[in-house]
Design goal:
Blueprint lengths: L2 H17 L6 E6 L11 E8 L3 E8 L1 E2 L5 E8 L6 E8 L9 E8 L7 E2 L6 E5 L1 E2 L2 E7 L10 E8 L5 E4 L3 E3 L5
Antiparallel strand pairs: 1-2, 2-3, 3-11, 4-10, 5-6, 5-12, 6-7, 7-8, 9-11, 12-13, 12-14
């Protein structure tokens, strides 16, 4: 390695060590057994990213279908007494070809008997249909207030009546520092 490249490499390495590197999203994934549920609701992989600006949940399905594949994710902060949040995909207003998908967010206070809908801009959902399709939801961290530190995320698919069809092992994901 010539002297110039060596100096640049040492400088970059020192800079990353001193600054802690770029802010990275805390991310975890889990595989789920295939063919343990009907294809449109069969979870095969869940990936959760809990970064400084948003929480993103991607769920690979054996055969995703808009309007037939809905997710429910329960988000439990590890802070004692913090409310639990539930984000779910829903059918959205159809403004063109195909079915559209949206998402809602609810908050369950520790001592509450019912959920409170959280009105928050920027909650999004998407689905890519077909074999090995995926469904995803994104929730801005601002929607969680001060409660969005480390989250235990439990993901399930539900049928039109809201009954759980398949679920994946819970993931504990720290919030990345930003």
């Amino acid at each position: 390695m010539n002297r110039f490249r060596y100096v640049v490499a040492v400088g970059l390495t020192a800079g990353l060590v001193l600054t802690g590197g770029a802010a990275q999203a805390a991310s975890k994934s889990v595989k789920d057994k295939a063919k343990d549920a009907p294809a449109a609701a069969d979870i095969t992989r869940v990936t959760v990213k809990n970064d400084a600006d948003k929480l993103a949940i991607k769920v690979k399905l054996r055969k995703a279908r808009a309007g037939r594949t809905h997710l429910v994710a329960t988000l439990s902060p590890t802070v004692e007494g913090a409310p639990t949040y539930v984000v779910r995909t829903v059918d959205a207003e159809n403004k063109g070809k195909g079915k559209k998908i949206g998402a809602t967010l609810e908050m369950w206070a520790a001592d509450a008997d019912e959920a409170e809908v959280v009105e928050c801009k920027g909650i999004k959902a998407a689905i890519s249909s077909g074999r090995n399709g995926q469904s995803q939801v994104r929730v801005p961290q601002a929607c969680f207030g001060d409660d969005a530190g480390t989250l235990v995320v439990e993901v399930a698919t539900v049928d039109p009546e809201g009954e759980v069809v398949d679920d994946a092992r819970p993931l504990r994901v720290k919030k990345a520092k930003g």
